[in-house]
Amino acid sequence: MKLYELATTPNARRVNLFLAEKGITVERVQVDVRAGENLTPEFRAKSANGRIPLLELDDGGYLCESVAICRYFDELYPDELALFGDSPLDRARVEMWHRIVELDGLIPAFQAFRNLSGVYRDREHCVPAWGEESRARLQAFLPRLEQRLGESDYLAGARYSIADIAAYVLIGFLPRLDISVAELPQLQRWLDRLRLRPALAGC
Ligand SMILES: N[C@@H](CCC(=O)N[C@@H](CS)C(=O)NCC(=O)O)C(=O)O
């Protein structure tokens, strides 16, 4: 298998942190999406959403969408980490928190960044007012994360999961939007806990 990515981008980080946690290595090909290398007809023929990360399978097929890629590796290589959960209720809680972080955190963050910075203005119409609104929605979401992390060691409960990986990627992206979480003590304690994980060292 081969993973097409740009390691510094947040959705590539989601997959990379997940694979690091599981100890899986895979051949990687860097695709400079900022320079439009994902806009070519060749790349678009491989990637259903036209973006990275994109996994090339050994049978010549392709999978895009970071969470689909993580789920595929998790089912190929099941382990005791059970990053998607380990019982019906646990899996549902992981899914619930993962979707909350994605829909209320990551998507507004990406919309804010794309529309305010204009980084992809060569391929989409940027609307600064939508960027501002998205940034405000993201800021309104952070206290909910703070509250949850005051109730629970990890987002979905007592164990680390893919929901924490998504939230960690979100927090790492906030400086690009000039948003600080220094004043959120529960979130800082959770970050300290996460930084002890060997898979996150230096990430
Ligand atoms: N929902 C997708 C989003 C993928 C995505 O937006 N990837 C960005 C890099 S983080 C990209 O390829 N951007 C290039 C573009 O929008 O043209 C996922 O989770 O994989």
TrEMBL record:
<dbReference type="InterPro" id="IPR010987">
    <property type="entry name" value="Glutathione-S-Trfase_C-like"/>
</dbReference>
<dbReference type="InterPro" id="IPR004046">
    <property type="entry name" value="GST_C"/>
</dbReference>
<dbReference type="GO" id="GO:0016740">
    <property type="term" value="F:transferase activity"/>
</dbReference>
<dbReference type="InterPro" id="IPR004045">
    <property type="entry name" value="Glutathione_S-Trfase_N"/>
</dbReference>
<dbReference type="InterPro" id="IPR036282">
    <property type="entry name" value="Glutathione-S-Trfase_C_sf"/>
</dbReference>
<dbReference type="InterPro" id="IPR040079">
    <property type="entry name" value="Glutathione_S-Trfase"/>
</dbReference>
<dbReference type="InterPro" id="IPR036249">
    <property type="entry name" value="Thioredoxin-like_sf"/>
</dbReference>
<dbReference type="Pfam" id="PF00043">
    <property type="entry name" value="GST_C"/>
</dbReference>
<dbReference type="InterPro" id="IPR034345">
    <property type="entry name" value="Gtt2-like_N"/>
</dbReference>
<protein>
    <submittedName>
        <fullName>Glutathione S-transferase</fullName>
    </submittedName>
</protein>
<keyword id="KW-0808">Transferase</keyword>
<dbReference type="Pfam" id="PF13417">
    <property type="entry name" value="GST_N_3"/>
</dbReference>
